[in-house]
Amino acid sequence: MNFPVWKGRSIRWVLLDRDGVINQDSPDYVRSVDQWQPIAGSLEAMARLYRSGCQLLVVTNQSGIGRGYYPRRELFAMHRKLASLLAAGDSAGVAQIEGVLFCPHLPDAGCDCRKPAAGLLHQAMSCFHFSTDQAVMVGDSARDIQAANGAGIEAVRVGEAGDFPSLSDWVDGFLKPQQRQ
Ligand SMILES: [Mg+2]
Ligand SMILES: [Zn+2]
Question: If you measure from the C-alpha of residue 123 to the centroid of ligand 2, how many angstroms do you get, rounded to a whole number?
Answer without folding.
Answer: 11
